[in-house]
Design goal:
about 0% strand, 434 Repressor (Amino-terminal Domain), elongated, mainly alpha
Length: about 120
């Protein structure tokens, strides 16, 4: 097999079937990104306008991210570069610090178990 055959099509990424090996829960990271961005903004002491200026985006766009819109491409990289410049910034973005405003994994597991039980009861009843 040539090196070219081993490349994903159209410059994309190969999908991994075994996500257990990944050190971070990417879905959780994306789901909690707005809260983490807000926390990073607070840690930096910047306003939304100041954060937007540092990231090189429009103020409205930065606020959209804080409200739940998912940043794309180079914008994500800009946020993480900025996080590197703030003490504890990467820990905030990656969820390595405990945050009372965000559910921990145990709470999420309990919620999922409860939802599964309720779904099973609905199907049986």
């Amino acid at each position: 097999m040539s090196k070219r055959d081993n490349q994903p099509p159209f410059g994309g990424r190969w999908r991994r079937d075994d996500d257990d090996d990944l050190p971070l829960d990417v879905e959780k990271l994306l789901r909690e990104f707005p809260q983490r961005l807000n926390r990073l903004k607070e840690a930096s002491g910047l306003s939304w306008s100041g954060l937007a200026r540092v990231l090189g985006v429009d103020r409205k766009q930065a606020r959209r991210w804080g409200g739940g819109t998912e940043p794309r491409g180079g914008s994500v990289l800009s946020v993480f570069h900025f996080g590197c410049r703030i003490p504890g910034g990467l820990d905030i973005l990656l969820g390595l610090l405990t945050d009372p405003d965000l559910p921990d994994d145990e709470d999420e597991d309990k919620d999922k178990e409860q939802a599964d039980e309720e779904e099973n009861e609905d199907q049986e009843g």
